TrEMBL record:
TM spans (from-to): 25-58, 64-95
Keywords assigned by UniProt, alphabetized: Membrane, Transmembrane, Transmembrane helix
UniProt name for this protein: ABC transmembrane type-1 domain-containing protein
The organism's place on the tree of life at top rank: Eukaryota
Length: 131
């Protein structure tokens, strides 16, 4: 009995492959294609995640920069308003004391005490602005 080249009969309902090496080659190609698809999907997901993280970081930094600029502008405006208010109070007190000094020589010392009261009340109301 010669067994060289003997192949068993195919199972019922199946076809015998004409060239089994083609089946193996097709499986290798399919596996390689699936691996390439998986690698491409992973690379795309990683790129999307990196882009989203970079965009979020840039947006957060932009928001932080905008908030910092707004805070600096508000602080500068408040300081300017406080300085202007103090200058106005000092000018009013100096003007009222100079006018009261000319009138105090005629009527006594009562107007200079009223200008000091005005200065005291002005500083009392400006004190919260300084804090």
């Amino acid at each position: 009995m010669n067994t060289v080249g003997f192949e068993p009969a195919p199972l019922a309902g199946t076809k015998r492959l004409a060239r089994p090496e083609l089946c193996t080659f097709t499986a290798v190609i399919a596996f390689a294609a699936a691996a390439v698809v998986v690698v491409v999907v992973v690379v795309v997901v990683v790129v999307v995640v990196v882009v989203v993280v970079v965009v979020v970081v840039v947006v957060i930094e932009a928001v932080v920069i905008v908030v910092a600029v707004v805070v600096v502008v508000v602080v500068v405006v408040v300081v300017i308003v406080v300085i202007a208010a103090v200058v106005v109070v000092v000018v009013v007190v100096v003007v009222s004391s100079s006018s009261s000094s000319s009138s105090s020589s005629r009527s006594g010392n009562s107007s200079s005490s009223s200008s000091m009261q005005y200065l005291g009340w002005s500083l009392f109301f400006l004190l919260p602005l300084l804090v």
